[in-house]
Amino acid sequence: MEHFNYRILLVLSVILFLGKFLEMISRKIKMPPVIALIMLGIVLGPSGLKFATSETLIKGIANIGALFLLFEAGLETDIKRIKTDSKVAILPASIGVILPLILGFFFNYFFTHNVMQSLIIGVIFTATSVSISVITLMEIGKMSTLEGRTIVNAAILDDIFGILLLSVVFGLAGVGDGGTTLLLFGKMILFFLIIIVIGIFIIKNIFRNLEKLKISDTFLTIAISFIFLYSWMAEFSGLAAITGAYFAGLFLGQTDYKEKIHHGISVVGKSFFIDIFFVSIGLEFILSDIKASPVYLTGFIILALIGKFFGCGIGARLSSFDLIKSARIGIGMIPRGEVGIIIASMAIQKGMISADGFSATILMVVVTAIIPPILLRYSYEKFKDKSF
């Protein structure tokens, strides 16, 4: 322990204290807390007070936070509800993925001529933040409306499409390391076969036996072990670790122990790991390193906005929604958040995107988290019972 940098304890203390304080303020002023945490990282980091840096330990904690975050997303995915309520959400979700993917790819390729980096930017463009969409709809009391339900279901489908796209793109990036496309997809298929077998035949039995032995207090520990196991298997298979974490949550979410696990993982994750993850994003945002032109940054944000708005809006229109409801669905699908940031964070660690793409993603997440709540509120107030 003699080489341990004890100053990091002070850094973590300040981050956690200020983070929770800013989260409370954010909720009072109806601003997504994720934005406050990222801004805290920027202020404390190299671009601000230079109080903290993204050290190895913080990066490690942040990576675990990313796994917990995607595990929660998987845990909250209701497979049965998707089957019954998502018919009208399929086109908004599908076109809302295809159009941003195309726009993001060709926009970045125009500037960089780098196919792999452009694919990553395209995948980042496809992500929709379920949490920001839900918070916005709850704030304006429109969660139960048809367009509200469609937004949520489409956002869930977007997450699934995004995770699968991410898996393919991250896997393809490893082909140049001596692998082949056939081997890559073989490893992907093997990974999914193994996690499905474990998820269906092993997980439920383990938790059932734990309950019979009256040691249910270990539920959380076993759940976390599955997060790490699935994440390791995904990374070992050439996929992203967060893919494994998501599917661990998906399978555990179908058990009778979902609520116990969800409560425990929320307490552990949100009290420490997840907050550190978002703050670490801000710590890695170095203003002096941004060499992208204002044209690139502006175009990046504008295309991210219009890609989701028109993609999801057109999909809703084709699903027989009227013009106003289609516009609301398009607006509600604009927010980016956890998934986009995680993809960018993982990609930059693997050297798959530039600092410009990473910085532009953070700016895009902030802008797309602020604009939609304003536009949604306006659309419901201005066009209460109208349709076109």
Textual characterization of the structure:
This protein has 16 helices and no strands. It is an all-alpha fold. The model has no long low-confidence stretch (mean pLDDT 82). The longest helix is centred in the middle third of the chain and has 32 residues, at 181-212. It is globular and about 60 Å long. Helix 2 packs parallel to helix 12 and helix 5 packs antiparallel against helix 13 (294-318). The chain has a single domain, classed as Na+/H+ antiporter like fold, CATH 1.20.1530.20. It has helices at 7-28, 33-44, 56-75, 79-85, 90-112, 115-126, 130-139, 146-173, 181-212, 219-236, 241-252, 258-283, 294-318, 323-332, 338-349, 355-382.
- Provide the helix percentage: over 70%
Q: Which fold name fills CATH's third level, the topology? A: Na+/H+ antiporter like fold
- C-alpha Rg (nearest Å): 21 Å
Number of domains: 1
Structural class: mainly alpha
Mean pLDDT: 82
Largest sheet: none
Order of helices and strands: HHHHHHHHHHHHHHHH
Number of helices: 16
Give the distance, in angstroms, between the N- and C-terminal Cα atoms: 68 Å
Low-confidence runs? none
> How much of the residues is beta strand, in percent?
under 5%
Examine the secondary-structure arrangement and name the CATH architecture: Up-down Bundle
List how many beta strands DSSP finds: 0
- Give the CATH level 1 class: Mainly Alpha
Shape, principal axes of CA atoms: globular
Short structural summary:
With 388 residues, this protein is mainly alpha-helical. The chain has helices at residues 7-28, 33-44, 56-75, 79-85, 90-112, 115-126, 130-139, 146-173, 181-212, 219-236, 241-252, 258-283, 294-318, 323-332, 338-349, 355-382. Helix 6 (115-126) runs antiparallel to helix 15 (338-349).
